[in-house]
Design a protein that fits this description.
Helix content: 25-40%
Number of domains: 3
Number of strands: 22
Structural class: alpha+beta
CATH class of the largest domain: Alpha Beta
Bound molecules: siroheme, iron/sulfur cluster
CATH superfamily of the largest domain: Sulfite Reductase Hemoprotein, domain 1
Strand order of the largest sheet: 1-2-5-4-13
Oligomer: single chain
Amino acid sequence: MSSPTVDRSHDLSQPLDKLNPDERMKADSDQLRGTIAAGLAAELTAAVPGNDIKLMKFHGIYQQDDRDIRDERRRQKLEPAYRFMVRVRLPGGVLSPSQWLKLDSIGRAYAGESLRLTTRQTFQIHRVHKKNLRSVIQGLRDVLLDTRAACGDDSRGVMASINPELSALHAEIHALAKRASDHAIPKTNAYREIWYEEEPADPRPTPEEPLYGKTYMPRKFKIGFVIPPINDIDIYAQDLGFIAIIEGKEIKGFNVVIGGGMGRTDQAPKTYPRLASLIGFIPKDKVLEVCDATMEVQRDYGDRVDRSHARFKYTIDDKGLDFIKAEIESRLGFSFTPAKPYRFVSNGDKIGWQRGEDGREHFTLFIENGRVSNLPDAALLDGLRAIAEVHKGKFRVTPNQNLIIADIESKDRPAIESLLRTYRLDGLNAASGLRLNSMACVALPTCGLAMAESERYLPSLLGKIEPILARNGLSEEPITIRMTGCPNGCSRPYIAEIALTGRAPGKYNLYIGGGFHGQRLNKMVLENVGEPAILEYLDGVITRYARDRSKGEHFGDFAIRAGLVPEVTEGRHFND
Ligand code: SRM
Ligand code: SF4
């Protein structure tokens, strides 16, 4: 295991004043305490002061305002309608029925009767008033949940594959994801002092943050575990990914990939999405050491001047993959062995009922864009509460924003089926192959970075693409489509077969050609266009696909073979 008392000299190698101002903000934050507690107590505003907004992200909390009424509030000379988004830490997306019931009650009491499943397998609770933040966080604590490091320059929510058919392997990978998350989150006591109102430890441990020091990571850092053949977590989008290598029925170890990421900015060619690179194999007992060593390398070499260039993917491309791999190995004190063969077939979820190898039943429910609320034609929030009240197994949030009611004993299945019918949830899974493989980020009205609608628009756009598919006999065809309200890539759009990223209200860039199992970036075909142009283009290519595709050929592969777009072989060439 690499040393816990690490060399912090990187913090001092350049004067803080020469680095991005966020570095000083972190260094001066008293290990993430800042003035958060005082800001919470200030009653004259629903907001918190500048730096605390950034520091609260490390505690999993984002200040936002309701953008639907921003202009109206300005006209009325009122401060924006500030509220907070709270992101739960839920490694691998697994939770118990009692945890579900607590989230449900929080969603009803503080978040406008709504919960949001995210693309990294957790929950976001939106629209929480500042005065209610502690109640929310303490409520989560009651069911052993927290929000630590759900955002901020640290190790974010750790993802893990969900394959109910492989129950034992799934349990193992989930346990590893939880260990990795617990291991890599900040150790500062700030969270407990601010949110649980605990007395500060006296004396404080020194150092308070053995891995992160005073300036934490240069930028967010994302870890994930996947079990082939389903690449549901999009392993190539992770900063550090572990691909399980199974022999017999056992995980022998992991192929390691590094340097994935989606974020980019339009008209800034130095920013680009990148697929993670495969660097070798490790035995399974070395996972935490590899997490430490890899994070240390990014901590020490990542760009602390330009935050738009600070993700691990840029460190790797700037320094060279061989250099970074050698640095990781030197900190590990051993070398990676050659990667072992593996194969992915899709990055989607298997919707509906499945039986695990242990005989238990699992029901994957399609939840459009992860939004859990009572819909006009399905009482989703109420129905899931009713299910949680009787369910004896677990729930699993999938990386595609869906939900698995998991680990149901066969004798209990009829009761769950009956509740699915009563609340009309069974009908949600009866959607086109395109819709079942769709994802949209939150975007408006809560996301401060959104330039266009996403979650609120994709369902209606799909309703206009579906007749094109039906006309071409492709209604059942699984095609991945992902939308975002800006180029940041929160629904991992740049690896979808079809993607739309927001440019302005009603305007999107359109991309095609991503890999069906997350193995290839897509390519832009239309820039800054509205719905008519999007539908006209898709009509043309879908018609060609139906006519000319080979047997079993996925849409993204067809787009490359038919020359609709050139294959993007490296992130660096995404913008060419
Ligand atoms: Fe994200 C920022 C929502 C997954 C890349 N993301 C944001 C913020 C917090 C906006 C902000 O900074 O003010 C969004 C909050 C919106 C809201 O109102 O809730 C936001 N991101 C989301 C979620 C909720 C999308 C969803 O609809 O599910 C996902 C929460 C994941 C989680 O549970 O932790 C979410 N974000 C992702 C992913 C996908 C992934 O990690 O697998 C990515 C692409 C992968 C990556 O990191 O490269 C992603 N989010 C970003 C970026 C661009 C980062 C970059 O390297 O450039 C930003 C902006 C930033 O960090 O500056 C961002
Ligand atoms: Fe917001 Fe952009 Fe992320 Fe969508 S992709 S949630 S608009 S930051």
